[in-house]
């Protein structure tokens, strides 16, 4: 434990991020997105971003790659960044600045073990109220949806007054079907002219820790597509597209594993879940 504490802040995050965003993946993403011929002949791709979970921390950092191959981080850590190395340095700096300045000074082994059980690296207590967990989850999910929305705008050439801006996070539910996880969301957007719209998103995990939006679309408030996954877990206000084939999860009449018990998402007192 003492050796681990003595590590430079985020020492493992660099190698983790390198694996997360391999050069082949980045090259393929930038090339396919920037090709005019590909855009003209095929429909817009599914919005895709990447998630980085810094080891030993309680939050995620989302990464979007634009058509030109530049990297954007959520939360905003500077940039856009020209290279993966710049992203790694920005994350290292961010974690270093957040780390508590005195809590992890050299201590006896038992003392360090106790402190690590009680506190996160920034000194925040690992035990918190349900209300705090809910608010933190909203913040994390909002960052993820903002990254996906920016990707959605870019893939459809929605810029300036036409671009959608993230406004409010409304509903969220995790669904498990045939050993695959889906997350359903409702959120609102606005444009420069003040028009507000309701969106639905279904997000699942892809290859290389990518987060892929199987469905990411504007819907009307009176749409009422059926979803067992949301209804069976009490999320009756979630609005789904009327077209059932627009989203993949929620069509089987099943509950979450372990008796349908919903665990607290992204809590600071349990294991983190990727989104």
TrEMBL record:
Pfam families: DUF3615. It comes from the Eukaryota. InterPro entries: DUF3615 (IPR022059). Residues 28-47 are annotated as: Disordered. Residues 28-37 have a biased composition (Polar residues). Residues 146-241 form the DUF3615 domain. This is DUF3615 domain-containing protein. It comes from Triticum urartu. The lineage of its organism: Eukaryota, Viridiplantae, Streptophyta, Embryophyta, Tracheophyta.
